[in-house]
Amino acid sequence: MIKHISIKNNQSISLHDIPVLKYDDFLAHNTSLLKEEHHHCVNYFGFPQERKLRLICCIANDNEHTILVSSSLINLDSTLPSFTHHHLSFHIFEREIHENYGIRYSDHPWLKPIRFSHDRYDRNSKIENYPFYKIDSEELHEVGVGPIHAGIIEPGHFRFICNGEQIIHLEIQLGFQHRGIEKLFLEKKKLLQRTILAESIAGDTVVGHTTAFVNLWESLCGFKVGNDLMFSRTLALELERIAIHTGDLSAICNDIAYQLGSAVFGRLRTPVINFFQIWCGNRMAKGLVRAGKNNFPFSKELGNRLLHLFEQYEPDFKEMYAEFKTLPSVLARLEKTGIVTKEQAYSIGAVGMSARMSGIVRDIRMTHPHDLYPQLHHKPILKHHGDVYSRTQIRKEEILQSIDYIKTLLKNIPEEDKSSQKLKSPSANAFAISLTEGWRGEICHCAITDEKGEIAHYKIKDPSMHNWLALALSVRNNEISDFPLCNKSFNLSYCGHDL
Question: Do 377 and 475 have their domain in common?
Fold first, then answer.
């Protein structure tokens, strides 16, 4: 019996080609795949079909550069054994299926709300009655932080259980922004509207999410992407990585009261995002990435300006980081703080930097490459201690790696593709998947079309969906004063979670 169909990143297939398994076989097949580290779940979701719920599971084979897609059709009133009982990394997906459709699980260890969407199945499940984990003890106390925070940070609540200053447990409650962005992808019918939605999923990952959307859309439409489009998208992804990583180094310095580092790294971020302003008219790159066309072709003049930017950026960056990493007061705060072990990271399905900090190879640029990444022969930056310092080192090394990649790309700037190729309508009854490696980690967009080629279901996964649990694990046995530093060292997305 065929248990899955094997496809590539940015491939569109007929929905009918996805095998439909009995649920017990579906569970056994997909959970058994995750016994090997080179397999991981990139998406698992349900959508209504024929008065039932069709579950689709997408398991990436990172060694073969393929995605194994299977499905199962279940009744809407089902009580099922859970995938999570076999592998914790499925927990977030099954919690979402439960919240959206009321599917019950007989052995799920942590079946709690994740978003409180306006159309959730159980309207009695509300933020104010969220079932926080509790420990009854006269020696322990709880500390609540948020959901309203100082400055411009988005809403999220952190509930600590502490023994004095030591954190025993942290539970993170999100879902305060009832955005409904996946439903808007169905309601909005124009391509421009949907592209703007993709740009708005996470404000610091405009290029990452929009590239996933346009690659998926072009796949559904059978559009052959030219070199100029792939060049612009690859360059923009690496430039976004440099900008955000630099800003995060500034924020980490601020959280350990190292003001010189905060000021210098903060200053260095500015010309990088300002380059997006020069290129496309927006500092966060909104308007730059579009399906089937390039409104802002990259020119040799822009290339020269970018090289000049790096000539000024690199010596200051290297000098500041060299000073930063030699200070005992800095290292005392970063080393052995906020540790997540390799076993923990693998069990929760951590992606991106949150996986690579513990020696796990999770990087779409190598495992499922797209656009011009095959030409760059990307090698992921890995660390093995899983602490704040590892996450800091990865940022520094990825910044320099991204600069080298951009310099390589600039040696061969493609001419603008002026062919008359036009986007066609999306294929009918199709399934498409797109993966990109945003600066935070693995982004996944999936789409299903109906018999008319209209989007019937759209599913988004931001890397924060996996990695918030990594933050909760990292602070255990640390002092509560270390939480802001641990939090910033991950820099996860509230809005990327609250879809």
Answer: yes
Distance CA 5, CA 217 (A): 20
Beta-carbon count within 10 A of 131 CB: 11
Residue ranges making up the domain that contains 75 = 5-110
pLDDT in tens, 42-66: 999 999 998 999 999 999 999 999 9
CA 282 vs CA 139, 146, 308, 320, 372: distances in Å? 53, 31, 20, 28, 23
* 158 within a domain of the structure (yes/no): no
Residue 427 three-state SS: coil
pLDDT, tens only, 244-277: 999 999 999 999 999 999 999 999 999 999 999 9
- Phi, psi angle pair for 477, to nearest 5°: 70, 10
Contact 65, 363 (CB under 8 A): no
CA-based torsion, 363, 368, 372, 376: positive or negative: positive
Question: Is 363 a member of any domain?
Answer: yes
* Average pLDDT, rounded, for the chain: 95
The pLDDT assigned to 146 comes to 86
pLDDT digit string, tens, across residues 339-362: 999 999 999 999 999 999 999 999
| Tokens encoding 134 | 């509790």
**CATH code of the domain covering residue 330:** 1.10.645.10
Q: Which of 110, 145, 162 is the last residue of a domain?
A: 110
- How far is 372 from 366, CA to CA, in rounded Å? 11
- CB-CB contact of 16 with 73 (8 Å): no
Domain boundary among 55, 85, 110: 110
Q: Is residue 185 domain-shared with residue 38, that is, in the same domain?
A: no
Closest CA to 307 of 369, 235, 248: 235
Q: Is residue 369 part of a domain?
A: yes
- Give the containing element (helix H, strand E) for 365: helix 364-367
Q: Is the pTM of this model over 0.90?
A: yes
